[in-house]
Amino acid sequence: MDEDDSTQQSQSAITDEITATLRLLRLLAKHGAQLYDVFEENLVDINVRPWANIIPQLFARLDHPEQPVQSLIADLLCKIGEQSPQLIVFHCVVGSNSAHNSLVQRKLLRHIGEALTRSHPELVTQVQHLVRELERVTVLWEEIWYKKIMAGVPELKSALQDLTEQYQGLEVISGLGPEDKHTVMYDNYQQTVIPLLATFESLQDSNARPESNHERWFISAFRDRIQDALESLRSPKSWGNMYEGLAKLKEV
Description:
mainly alpha; 0% strand
């Protein structure tokens, strides 16, 4: 009887803890921007154990409309990852390239994933390998590319729009010569667009050794078109028209 009472009390304590943590999360979601400094200060020495009970809710809140709240929740997940990486690593690896997540969510998941890579590189590498192997044996290559392209196009489009606006701004600066304009645009392009191509290049490398007849068909049908699109994205012919590679990628 005493054992039953102890079990009930323990379960009740866990329930109360989860309820209290969810209330804090709602407070963060509702007033996080106003209370940012308070939350940030307490994140330094926070006990992450109660928050580990509501990890799905934390990931769901990454899409919060206010940037300070997004940042606080991402930092909280990074803290959880430092102590209990196994609780979040799979979600970060899969979700950072999922077309089902918003652009904001994917960026934040990559940020959390980078923190995990610094603190637990071997675990992240193992999970990445597991995910690739699962995709290889369960998903057709064209499905994988379709999902990667659908997830990557919005980010590339946004980056190219920003660069186009930058180029238009440079064009009206009379004291800036053509070589200087090219240097500025080249540096900005390398910093914004080229990193976004890493996912596609990694997938290209994984497709280098087709094994089944279907994989060989895929290489025959799509390899050259994909390569042409990525080359156009790596080296646009003109700063005035940087969208050619993106259009080719969407046509694949």
